[in-house]
Design goal:
Structural class: alpha+beta
Radius of gyration: 40 Å
Helix content: 55-70%
Strand content: 5-15%
CATH topology of the largest domain: Outer membrane efflux proteins (OEP)
Shape: elongated
Order of helices and strands: HEHHEEHHEHHEEHH
Number of strands: 6
Distance between the termini: 83 Å
Strand order of the largest sheet: 2-3-5-6
Number of domains: 2
Number of helices: 9
């Protein structure tokens, strides 16, 4: 009997175990499915993909496109004066006990056409000015796009730099932890002082703080790139790229010549100047006569005063009018003066921008040359710092070097690695800056 009871209990326990296992498996499967559904896709960005996304979604570029549409509408408005104005009208009048009009109801329709024949060049110059302003807006869009491209590249490589800082800080933390372990072993053997042990622990803590800052810098840099790309802040992004160092040879004077012919901002201001000069001519047309043609056709309308015609006969009126301005309170004179002032203002701004562009090219070329020299010097410096650290670490583990020597070598290695990464970033960003201020790609795709 006891064996039977034991056997039943055993079977019940096996059933419970099976049910528990099945429930666990289902729970894990549901959890994985839920995680897969809720997991947000990661946007992997190369430099080219980041630029493409920014040119498509950047808020400033989208706003600039709307400004171009406004300028196009202004061109259409200027052209409207070239074409005739056509309108139709209808009326109905009810007379009740009128003392002079014998009928009670009157109705009719009309067709009116008016055409400007001569405006002293005001219309043609207004059209030309609006067209040049439209072209200027488009050049402004190109300048903005070039600026956004430069900003995206700068943000992209700053993320790479921040990621490299994070890697270096992780390596530094591992080195400090390794040094702490060596110091602890030496302390147990009586080969290191308690001060050395404390100092090693402090270095580990300091390295952890630097690593935290490096990780935060990566997150902040990614968020800044999201602003330029015009994507939602919650979107997860990953950067796929690296620093490529290719030495460049260039001549500043040649680059200035290219910038003066290629830079969109200079093309824009030149078009603004042309538009301003046309506005002067358009304003001056107010002093000149204007000629109009008008035609009106009336039909199906009763007339109170008629002679030899029915009350509902159609008739039309055609006229040519000439308007000669004699005095308008000096309004046209003031408009001309205003337009001339605008021409001078745009001319001053053009000279200013030309000078700025030249200086920008020179400074960008100097920065690129300095960054290139820094990269070449820092590359060898990192190799020497690594070799020096390995030598000191080996001597320290054997008790042949002081802890201060080890810390100095560790600091020198960390600084050299960071300086080298910074120099690579500076070189890449400086190259992008030079291409932006020149207004053309000048390095033939050397930097990817």
């Amino acid at each position: 009997m006891e064996e039977l009871v034991f056997d039943n209990r055993k079977r019940l326990m096996n059933k419970k175990t099976i049910v528990y296992c099945v429930f666990s498996i289902c729970f894990i499967a549901l959890a994985q499915v839920s995680f897969a559904v809720n997991k947000k896709p990661v946007l992997v960005l190369t430099e080219e993909k980041a630029i493409e996304t920014a040119l498509k979604n950047n808020y400033d570029i989208l706003s600039k496109k709307e400004e171009i549409k406004v300028s196009q509408s202004i061109v259409n408005q200027a052209w409207s004066k070239v074409f005739p104005n056509i309108s139709v009208g209808a009326n109905y009048i009810r007379y009740e006990n009128h003392p002079f009009i014998p009928f009670e109801n009157n109705h009719g329709y009309s067709l009116e056409v008016s055409q400007l024949l001569f405006a002293g060049g005001g219309v043609s110059n207004a059209i030309g000015a609006s067209k040049n302003n439209l072209k200027a807006e488009r050049e402004g869009k190109k300048e903005l796009e070039n600026n956004i491209v430069y900003g995206v590249r700068q943000a992209f490589y700053n993320i790479l730099l921040a990621t490299e800082f994070e890697r270096i800080r992780k390596e530094t933390l591992l080195l400090t932890e390794e040094n702490l372990s060596i110091t602890q072993e030496r302390y147990k053997k009586g080969e290191s002082s308690h001060y050395d042990l404390l100092r090693s622990g402090v270095e580990v803590s300091n390295s952890k703080v630097q690593l935290i800052k490096a990780k935060n810098l990566v997150k902040v840099s990614r968020n800044f790139l999201k602003i330029l790309l015009g994507i939602d802040y919650s979107k997860k992004i990953e950067i796929n790229g690296k620093f490529n160092y290719v030495p460049q040879n260039f001549n500043s004077n040649d680059l200035i010549k290219v910038a003066l012919s290629k830079r969109p901002v200079l093309k824009e201001i030149s078009l603004r100047e042309k538009a301003a000069r046309m506005q002067v001519k358009s304003a001056f047309s107010g002093h000149l006569p204007q000629a109009y043609f008008s035609f009106t056709d009336y039909g199906n309308q009763k007339e109170m005063f008629t002679s030899g015609r029915g009350k509902y006969d159609d008739y039309w009126i055609a006229a040519v009018a000439l308007k000669i301005p004699l005095f308008d309170g000096f309004l046209t004179t003031a408009k001309v003066k205003e337009a001339k002032v605008m021409v001078r203002k745009v001319g001053i701004l053009k000279n200013k921008l030309t000078n700025i562009v030249k200086i920008e090219v020179i400074n960008a070329a100097l920065n690129l040359k300095a960054a290139q020299d820094t990269v070449e010097s820092q590359n060898e410096n990192v190799n020497r710092a690594k070799e020096a650290y390995e030598i000191i670490q080996q001597k320290y583990s054997l008790g042949e070097a002081a802890q201060l020597d080890l810390l100095d070598a560790q600091l020198a290695l960390s600084v050299s690695q960071i300086s080298y990464a910074q120099s690579l970033c500076d070189f890449t960003v400086a190259g992008s800056k030079l291409e932006y201020v020149v207004g053309d790609k000048i390095f033939g795709g050397a930097k990817k």
